Amino acid sequence: MPLPFQQVWSPEDSVAIVTGASSGIGWELTRLLVAERSHVIVVARRRERLLELAETCDQPDRVHLVVGDVTQAGTRDEAMSLADDLGNGGLDLLVNNAGVGAIGPFAEASAERMRKVMEVNFFAPVEWTRAAMPRLRCVAERGKRSVVCNIGSVLGHRAVPDKSEYCASKFALHGWNDSLRAELIHDGIGVTLVSPSTTQSEFFDALVDTDPNQKSKSIGSWPPSRVATATLDAIKRGRSEVILSLGGKALVYADRVSPPVMNGILAKRGD
Ligand SMILES: NC(=O)c1ccc[n+]([C@@H]2O[C@H](COP(=O)([O-])OP(=O)(O)OC[C@H]3O[C@@H](n4cnc5c(N)ncnc54)[C@H](OP(=O)(O)O)[C@@H]3O)[C@@H](O)[C@H]2O)c1
To answer: How far apart are CA 197 and CA 177, in angstroms?
Structure first.
């Protein structure tokens, strides 16, 4: 039966999947969810980091590990079947958080770099959501709200030079996210897009095919715990979109007011 769209989401006794939980935002969000009595299926490639995460949670038995690459169907199948066991066929929350970046001019980049970034940041969230959909629907039919939360970026609202692959992937995620939200709005399934700006995580240590001398030119940053707190708040309140940080909001809203001015400011100069 369709639910009122604004019903508040509660972590208590929920089953959640968080991809990319072995560091940064996903790590912190898992800790918050577990502290509020959610069962969290944590997904990443580094097993030891996921074990460490479980140990730092106040209820380690609520953390369930799936070790693998999010771009692989086997990883997804394992997580979904674990969710079926824990949630009796239902899934309350899917957080598509795993992500990678790359820095450097498009003209000097390999075709492979674009493929890798798009696979992790766009095609993986799409396929994880496709697999989760019947399980999310099952929860909604039981009279509870379920949620898909996509971790985007302010660079999915305004693109900048030297991050073409990353911007393309986050713009794609943003567009797909908005279509999905409109399709599911009357089904009791919420779709939330969270767009952080620079966050102090391991993100810049794991850039794809990037010259180590390339540096991000972003100004100011948030700790991942702050991003995770804002994310959980957005999920609970059924927010459709949140753009985090003052700098992030300034970039996005200035671009909405005058794209040509922003194009001029961001134009790459050779000097
Ligand atoms: N950091 C920023 O400045 C920033 C700004 C805006 C948006 N974001 C977005 O926030 C999200 C989280 O990033 P973060 O800052 O927390 O970065 P992070 O600390 O580098 O975390 C990224 C997570 O994704 C996982 N991951 C990456 N590729 C994977 C793959 N192929 N399969 C499975 N897991 C994979 C990593 O785990 P393993 O390596 O163990 O697999 C790690 O747990 C990303 O979507 C990112 O685009 C970040």
So the answer is: 18
Helix pair angle (111-118, 164-184), 10° resolution: 30
Query: What value does the mean pLDDT take over residues 137-146?
Result: 96
Q: Is 166 assigned a catalytic role? A: yes
**For a pocket test of ligand 1, which of 100, 103, 169 has the largest count of ligand atoms closer than 8 A to its C-beta?**
100
From the list 100, 195, 102, 96, the residue with the least C-alpha distance to 152 is 195
**Domains of the chain, first to last:** 15-266 (3.40.50.720)
Strand partners, 243: 195
Q: How far is CA 172 from the centre of its chain?
A: 13
How far apart are alpha carbons 125 and 143 in whole angstroms? 25
Task: Say whether pLDDT at 3 is over 50.
Answer: no
pLDDT of residue 1: 44
Average pLDDT of the residues in 2-11: 69
Residue 5 pLDDT exceeds 60: no
Output the 3-class SS for 190-237: EEEEEECCCECCCHHHCCCCCCCCCCCCCCCCECHHHHHHHHHHHHHH
* pLDDT of 220 strictly over 80: no
Closest-lying ligand 1 atom to the alpha carbon of residue 49: 40
